[in-house]
Write a structure and sequence with these properties.
Helices cover 0% and strands 41% of the residues. The protein is mainly beta.
Length: 196
């Protein structure tokens, strides 16, 4: 998939990755897009509509073309009544005992006080049932876009199903925007389908 529109910034030159802008660029309307290589997710940026994004809990997930980190659209998550309610991206398969790097940009709705937003992974395995793993979190504001990034190590007990990456909030009723979700890592070579 073409990931040329996805952006990454790193203000620490000692840990700069090849795809990151290490000049200390502003999260708001960055000038120079930098490719995130080998993004395994299709439409993590909502440029092709809502699919395959889905609501989690009672949340309502809609397209927004007015407030976006990049491109022409973002996802707007509203109508939440619990912290875990939000927007989820289903993932068909991941390779066990491998690490995956996630990035997603978030922004609170106007008038919402700063609150922590968290990117998490959910899956069910054949031995221990449902698991929830925190990938990363950041303090988000309504004034600018904030990057959440982190590493997820996939280590299910037995076979895994129902994999979903999702954004949730410490504020149970906060509404927020999501854009440019990306994942890099190793796909199970035995699977005929890539994650979508």
């Amino acid at each position: 998939p073409d990931a040329s529109h996805l952006l990454a910034f790193n203000t620490n030159p000692d840990t700069c990755e090849p795809w990151e802008d290490c000049s200390g660029g502003d999260n708001e309307d960055p000038d120079v897009p930098v490719t995130v290589p080998d993004n395994l997710l299709q439409n993590g940026d909502a440029e092709s509509g809502l699919s395959p994004w889905q609501p989690r809990g009672e949340a309502q997930v809609t397209l927004d073309t007015n407030t976006k980190h990049n491109g022409n659209a973002s996802l707007f998550t509203s109508n939440r009544s619990a912290g875990w309610h939000g927007a989820a991206y289903p993932i068909k398969t991941l390779t066990p005992n491998n690490a995956y790097e996630f990035r997603v940009w978030v922004r609170l709705a106007p008038g919402t006080p700063p609150t922590d937003l968290k990117l998490s992974m959910e899956y069910q395995d054949s031995v221990d049932g449902v698991h929830y793993r925190n990938v990363g979190s950041s303090l988000a504001t309504a004034d600018s876009w904030t990057l959440i990034s982190g590493t997820y190590f996939h280590a299910p007990s037995g076979s895994a199903s129902g994999l979903r990456a999702y954004v949730e909030s410490a504020n149970a009723t906060a509404s927020y925007y999501i854009d440019d979700l990306s994942m890099t890592g190793i796909v199970d070579s035995a699977s005929p389908e890539e994650p979508t």
